[in-house]
What we know:
By secondary structure, the chain is an alpha/beta fold. 30% of the residues lie in helices and 24% in strands.
Amino acid sequence: MSKITATITGIGGYVPEYRLTNDELSRMVDTNDEWIMTRIGIKERRILKEKGKGSSELGAAAVNQLLEKTGTSPDEIDLLICPTVTPDMQFPATANIISDKTEIKNAFSYDLNAGCSGFLYALSTASKFIESGRYKKAIVVGAEKMSSIVDYQDRATCPIFGDGAGAVLLEPTEENYGILDEIMQVDGSGRVHLHQKAGGSLKPATHETVDSREHYIYQEGQQVFKAAVAKMADVSVEIMERNGIAPDDLNWLIPHQANMRIIEATARRMGIKKEQVMINIQRYGNTTAATLPLCLWEWEEKLNKGDNLIFATFGAGFTWGSIYVRWGYDGSSKN
């Protein structure tokens, strides 16, 4: 009997309509378009501004689009995992709320938090359920309302993040397609450089923590940048080498959209051209667990069956990883 692998069979995505431009940010904090473009590479980011709407709103929109595009009934879904660092609330899981909003009733669902690496961690996890043979259809939906934890008085972090969601459907195949290899790693000592200081069980919310602005993203930029450049590049090269993928054999690198300089450094280390790299950071910023599926969403029409794809990511934790995928369908057929 042939080995079962998990292959992506469809993609959905959603970003809010409101565009927060660099010019608008420059009226909020001491920054400007040149500074942001030179250091980060972001021109604008999408923001969910409507009151009473959280990450589940974004995730549900992406999942509904995915179900419609693939002709899949909500009743067919066995599993839904939502990687996110901005859940609607501490509990229940945002995945449960997305399931309710999309009428998915026959699946179990839960959240996964691995910072910006969340989508790859969830993709790896969901693929194991498919490979087991027990489940036939699993959804991974990265959904983030990063604007809810961004301090718009902090010029170092507020230009970086945006809101959005992307979802993929995983199904089993016995052909040589899908998720073929992965490397996932963590160094928990890196947590001191990128975290949210208050709001968890270690430091519950108080008037003091709110007044001290400790419920926003805290980042030590230089330490995070250095680690991200090294780790994303190392793991991407390693997965190429152990799968015998030469630079010319790689169709697409899908890197986490955190910083243009990190993306460019990773591509150089892999020996690939810019034309082989999916980049949309200039339009959406860093949407954390949504960056990778949003790239797939935008590039789907250009993907062909048999394409070699490498995903690479780095996030809070520190977490990082890479996944090798042989693409399983012609993207133009789904649009």
